[in-house]
Amino acid sequence: MEKIRASIIGGSGYTGGELIRLLLFHPNVELCEITSESLVGKYIYKAHPNLRKSTNLKFSSLSEIENCDVLFLCMPHGQSQKSIETYKQKAGKIIDLAADFRLKDLAEYEKWYGHSNSNPTALSEFVYGIPELHRDEMKSSDFVSSAGCNATVSILSMYPFYKEGLVDTERTVIEVKVGTSEGGNKYSASSHHPERSGSLRSYMPLQHRHSAEIVQELSFDEKISVNFSATSVDMVRGVLATIHLFTNEKLNDKDVWKLYRKYYYDEPFIRIVKEREGIYRYPEPKLLIGSNYCDVGFAVDDTSNRIVLIGAIDNLMKGAAGQAVQAFNIINGLEETTGLTFPGFHPI
Amino acid sequence: MKSADCPVCDGLVELDEKTVTGELIECRDYGTELEVVELDPPKVEEAPQEEEDWGQ
Known about the structure:
The structure holds 2 protein chains of 2 kinds. By secondary structure, chain A is an alpha/beta fold. Chain A has 10 helices and 14 strands. The radius of gyration of chain A is 20 Å and the shape is globular. Chain B has a single domain, classed as Rubrerythrin, domain 2, CATH 2.20.28.
């Protein structure tokens, strides 16, 4: 089979680095160009030292980008929408890892991102990028907008409950504990080691943008609301979501097992993790580092209608680059797990 | 192959041909240790487990 020619716009960040790592070892991909305006002419390993000797590619400039089959956009939020028509001339298929085309409601986009979307017509062309929810749409689409990392783990943990209409939709509380790589590779005073080390920082108790994605994807018969908070913890990668979800009827353990199995039994990247004993009784992000899995678990409160859902992912994988490659496989008619079968490390 | 339902998570628990009554097997999904109490039809019950106290 002829290889699919792929290029990356904006490949110097953490997500870009992870995407390069995946695509270099993807059996159906020829990675052609990776742009970075600040590193033009430098070897890829200058930004991503783990890739030393894996490739002789150098960063190129956006102005030099040539036509290819698939273009991955890894730029800061707000950039893709300005040049999307130009990128469409370069590649027939585009996967955007930023937030530009995630929210389908223009008013919601403006509310959460503080500016209007400069290319509203493109919104309807992009499929929201969680394959477990939008696989069929992706199969007939050329454009995918990868989901936010916190949104991904939250949505996947809760999706079966909302889809089945089981949730008291005003009371859901989501608390995510996130690794520092979510903040990107730009340093600041807050990332200075003496300040950061050992920190447990409530960095977004309210108004996290990913709330809007969760509401969009889990609103079926009515618009829901969620109460979302994010805390930065002293780890590099990973997200652990603890979700307090109240059901409108009493469910027991077996009910929840059945529900999760109904939706996720055949999903290659979702695992139900709930064990009675042992060390890893519920999902834990460190076991997922480098893997594309989303682990979901739960505990049912016998005294109320509360179910505590626990979800975990690697934010740079299932929450970004891995999810994008999964979508890439789907829109190109490849086996969905291609290039994504690494199961993680233990111990780590 | 004979099978039974896990009494905790309702998952399918498979018993091989050599399984005997009283044997302890594990639920693949939940990891629960189960005791085979009947063979025909197969029936399993949750085996007693040590509780951990992580609340110190």
